[in-house]
Amino acid sequence: MLDFAQWSLDAIREEGGALSWLEEHRFEWSKTTAFALEQILNGKTVILITDQKRKWLERYIIDAINSIDIDRPLIPIVTIDSLYTHYNNINGGEMIDMVDDLISLSYKNDHFFWYIGKGDDKRSDIAKRKDNSYFWTFDEDFNNAFTLKSYDPLLDIKLLQLYRLFDASLNATMFGEVDAAS
Fold first, then answer.
1. Average pLDDT of 26-38?
2. Rg of the Cα trace of the chain?
3. CB-CB contact of 169 with 177 (8 Å)
4. CB 142, CB 128: distance < 8 Å
5. What are the CA-CA distances from residue 163 to residues 57, 85, 115, 167, 174 (Å)?
6. Is the whole-model pTM more than 0.90?
7. CATH code assigned at 57
8. For residue range 155-176, what is the model confidence (pLDDT) as tens digits?
9. How many domains does the chain have?
């Protein structure tokens, strides 16, 4: 069975020039994504959070990941806004603690956050508090983060390409083609 880093490199190269930009970032991609995939395979619920500019991507992921056309088990994924509709109005650590408590009670700590957006956006604060969170961040680097540049004119295209690779990675790990733990 291939390890995830090698599988990712092969998948990137298979796409040809379209994903050539990702080849130089493959180790960062492999490390962070393998950790997220392991959590999904262990049955954790994904709580998806995006900044306001990436709400379109949030809707796309929610619609695509469990599409009727997907031939794999369904993935437990929800958005932070579906759990607490007033999430945008949270200010301060005490309110974040209350929302975090709600989520922990609801999901028995069998969840992780997937944040996509600018690293300094307040919507990322709850995810930054957890060591097991998965990030696609812009202009800020921290643990478990795949970092991109917010001013990249091809950012939206790259995000869609990343999701496509993530989805293929999810299939490969679920069906035993690759080991995300290696």
1. 94
2. 16
3. no
4. yes
5. 9, 25, 13, 6, 16
6. yes
7. 3.40.50.11670
8. 999 999 999 999 999 999 999 9
9. 1
Tell me, what amino acid is at 10?
D
- Give the model confidence (pLDDT) of 90-124 as tens digits: 887 899 999 999 999 999 889 999 999 999 999 99
- Sequence length of the chain is 182
How many angstroms separate the first and last alpha carbons of the chain? Answer: 10
SS3 content of the chain, % helix, strand, coil (to 5): 55, 15, 30
Residue in this structure with the two tokens 């097991």, named with its chain if needed: 132
Q: What are phi and psi of 39, to 5 degrees?
A: -65, -40
- Tell me the C-alpha distance between 95 and 181, whole Å: 35
CA–centroid distance for 53 within its chain? 16
The β-bridge relationship of strands 111-118 and 45-50 is parallel
Q: What's the confidence (pLDDT) of residue 15? A: 84
What kind and span of H or E run contains 178? strand 178-179
For range 121-144, the mean pLDDT: 92
